[in-house]
């Protein structure tokens, strides 16, 4: 996907869209882990199989999600995973409110890179940025090299929520973005008497719900 024009508008909501606050969310991770595919699946509900075309630069998609009856506007930035674009993408971290950090469960080196990504995030992003770790390509079970427990352990070490996703089947894709939207909505509108929202607890409870009731 060629995303050289950062001002490009690639979908989103109606005419009143820009009158409202956009929550900037960035997808990061090694080249080929499935960032573009995850965004296309979330935005358009489809997966385009076939040859891999690496993202060039950075671009965004606007998307409105409804959480607890409230419209939350996400501006989701898809970055190029290739090393040569790193200095460009760092500049975008600073005003990000959320970062989805992906690895590919069939690619050990993409998992090994996660610590370096987190170091970069802590260096360039705001201290309170919401981070979520995603192990993508969960549909490719026969080629899996990273166990789900390893993803969970790493996420726990850094205190971030974790999900395995598939941009191909759509597994957990909506949940990942909805959890981010819920957290950002909670932070934006926090009232004194509002019960606190913990994104990690929410993700864990949703995971349990889907595994308990997948036969239904
Ligand atoms: N089976 C399967 N294939 C996937 C999945 N996600 C992505 N792919 C494939 O993996 C390849 C890379 O996907 P991209 O979405 O382009 O990866 P990217 O992270 O955006 O890569 P860069 O733009 O270089 O940073 C493509 O061939 C996709 O079709 C998935 O969940 N399951």
Automatic annotation (TrEMBL):
Top-level taxonomy: Eukaryota, Metazoa, Chordata, Craniata, Vertebrata
Organism: Rhinopithecus bieti (Black snub-nosed monkey)
GO molecular function: G protein activity; GTP binding; metal ion binding
Pfam assignment, any one: Ras
Family to which the UniProt record says this protein belongs: Belongs to the small GTPase superfamily. Rab family.
Gene Ontology biological-process annotations: protein transport
Enzyme Commission (EC) number: 3.6.5.2
Family matches, as PANTHER family: PTHR47978
UniProt KW keywords: GTP-binding, Hydrolase, Lipoprotein, Magnesium, Metal-binding, Nucleotide-binding, Prenylation, Protein transport, Transport
Protein name: small monomeric GTPase
Top EC class, one word: hydrolase
Cofactor: Mg(2+)
Reactions accelerated catalytically: GTP + H2O = GDP + phosphate + H(+)
PROSITE patterns: RAB, RAS, RHO
